[in-house]
Write a structure and sequence with these properties.
The protein is of the alpha+beta class. The chain is built from 20 helices and 19 strands.
Length: 570
């Protein structure tokens, strides 16, 4: 009996000690914003890599991809994940289950290559491994070297120790490089010396972090960050800076005009508050949610632009089956919607800024030869549709439901046919003059308008009966957003991004894909390649929800081998 008591006591002590050890070694959650510089242009965080992996493995598309990609992962057991999270097992597995990750863009650099202006961001991947430095160091250095080999094919790597342990790997063919620092339990992987130094200074308290940003904490709550697989944030100041850099291209100007960018930045700060992103599992795929926060007064004036009415759907008969993207605008009154957009922006701006922003707004229809949108929109009713007819098209085609055909013809004559650069046709049997830059075709109660070569592509598809409502395409592209009533709905062919994602994943296999495996993957990709985006007006701004196979995770993973990944499945 006495021996039995001793055994029971020892067992209880062992259980208590084991529980205490698990409690002590079990990692807690940290706020990754505390690791990011306060002035970061873009901030992304991923608080559980295992949750992301599990979400992808349970994804309909991933299951359809089958054994060629190894969808029966050796590390998919929840028990094994729990054991590794407790710190037991190979270092790579332990780090994977414990790690929290942040991606930050700390700056943008412009590099001229021939006659092209290339933008290269300073970016950093920050990993809180919650693993002891003595155990982490060699595994982290080896991982960085493997990453460099994966990205560059071959790389020259050097190591040194200063205030942290550093490893630098450079591509022998280009000026690209990877610079990494191991500081305690944190690994910082960047593409520049400046980025790694900025992040280390945040670690040492020499530079403020993003954690103190009150707007970030607010949008986290709005986007249910604790339930999300990923979260992203751009502050109001930086969203204005990014807008001022990108907006000139909408009106045909190259970035770099400092005076114009200053006007745009100053104006955008009066309208934009910030941009946030979250991602979660939904409808057998991934849903990415974007929130573009706006000033309350701007939101109030945008209301009419997002009021929907009864919209006819016969336009599908004009949409080529091979279309790469399609956006449907269901505003109750197109002209009222346009005026609301124009007035919402002008309300917060001075005269000069209002003119600049009005030009940006008009640029949306200027590509179709429409210099005065209000005159054209008066003649049309909902829905308005833009279509990129095929993969080779450089532009899109505008389709609108005709409200007043006589007035429409008059407007088209003034804006499209004047000067001899455009033509107006009726019916689908007449081929446009390819020497004319623009073509407008009236088909029953619809207008088809755009660059002549794009309109010709639509006419060819209509004649052959290769349109969306004549095939299974309409059901396929609406898979992720059935019966959506969103004011703006966009369908896009996601095949290129999905192919790139699958290509990168296939590179992790021990053996290359066989011809049969490649063909099988191509078929799965073709049948799973559409994404759907709903755009709505929320209480604090504009909200967009995109449902696709793998969401932005496919974009982020594809960046690892940008140069060769897209060629793997061709």
């Amino acid at each position: 009996m006495k021996l039995l008591r001793i055994i029971v006591i020892l067992i209880c002590l062992a259980v208590l000690l084991g529980a205490a050890w698990l409690w002590w070694s079990w990692p807690g959650k940290v706020d990754m914003a505390a690791y990011a510089p306060a002035d970061s242009l873009v901030y992304l965080e991923f608080n559980s890599l295992t949750d992301i992996a599990n979400a992808i493995q349970q994804n309909d598309t991933w299951r359809a991809l089958g054994p060629p990609l190894g969808n029966k992962a050796a590390f998919d057991s929840h028990w094994w994940q729990a054991i590794a999270r407790a710190g037991i097992g190979p270092t790579d597995n332990v780090v994977f289950t414990r790690a929290q990750v942040a991606v930050v863009v700390t700056g943008l650099n412009s590099v001229e290559e021939a006659e092209t202006l290339r933008v290269r961001p300073d970016a950093a991947l920050i990993i809180e491994t919650q693993t002891n430095h003595w155990r982490l160091k060699s595994a982290a250095i080896n991982a960085v070297k493997r990453l460099a080999t994966f990205a560059y094919g071959q790389a020259l790597c050097t190591e040194h120790t200063a205030d942290a342990d550093f490893v630098e790997c450079a591509s022998p063919q280009t000026d690209r490089k990877i610079v990494a620092a191991i500081d305690g339990s944190v690994v910082i992987i960047t593409n520049s010396d400046t980025a790694v130094r900025n992040c280390l200074e945040v670690r040492r308290g020499l530079r403020p972090s993003l954690q103190s940003d009150a707007e970030l904490q607010k949008v986290r709550r709005n986007l249910r960050n604790n339930q999300s697989l990923a979260f992203g944030y751009v502050s109001s100041t930086n969203s204005a800076r990014l807008f001022s850099w990108a907006a000139p291209m909408l009106i045909g100007k190259a970035p770099g005009d400092q005076q114009l960018e200053q006007v745009l930045t100053s104006s955008a700060t009066k309208i934009l508050r910030g941009i946030a992103w979250s991602s979660e599992s939904a409808s057998g795929g991934i849903e990415d949610r974007y929130l573009f926060s706006l000033e309350p007064a701007v939101v109030a004036r945008l209301g009419p632009a997002f009021q929907t009415g009864n919209a006819a759907d016969e336009f599908w008969k004009l949409v080529p089956d091979s279309s790469q993207s399609l956006t449907i605008y269901r505003s109750q009154n197109p002209q009222t919607a346009w005026n609301a957009l124009d007035q919402a922006v002008a309300y917060k701006l001075d005269a000069l800024s209002a003119i600049v922003f009005s030009s940006l707004l008009k640029s949306g229809l200027a590509v179709y030869g429409v210099e005065n949108p209000k005159d054209l929109l008066t003649t049309l009713s909902s829905p308005l549709v833009t279509v990129r007819p095929n993969a080779g098209a450089e532009g899109s085609v505008f389709i609108g439901h005709i409200l007043n055909q006589e007035q429409l013809r008059h407007t088209l004559t003034q804006q499209i046919a004047s000067g001899g650069h455009g033509q107006i046709l009726e019916g689908t049997k007449i081929d446009p003059d390819l020497k004319k830059e623009l073509t407008a075709v009236i088909v029953d109660d619809y207008l088809v308008l755009g660059k002549t070569e794009n309109v010709q592509a639509c006419l060819n598809a209509i004649r052959r009966g290769e349109v969306a409502n004549a095939t299974a395409s309409q059901k396929q592209i609406s898979h992720f957003a059935p019966q959506s009533n969103a004011p703006i709905l966009t369908y896009a062919n996601d095949e290129k991004r999905l192919s790139s994602f699958v290509s990168v994943v296939s590179l992790l296999r021990p053996a290359p894909l066989s011809q049969a495996e490649s063909e099988k993957l191509k078929n799965v990709i073709k049948n799973s390649s559409f994404s759907a985006t709903e755009t709505n007006l929320a209480a604090n701004g504009i909200e967009r929800k995109t449902r696709s196979a793998f969401g932005q995770f496919s974009t982020l993973l594809s960046l690892l081998q940008q140069d060769t990944a897209t060629n793997m499945l061709r």
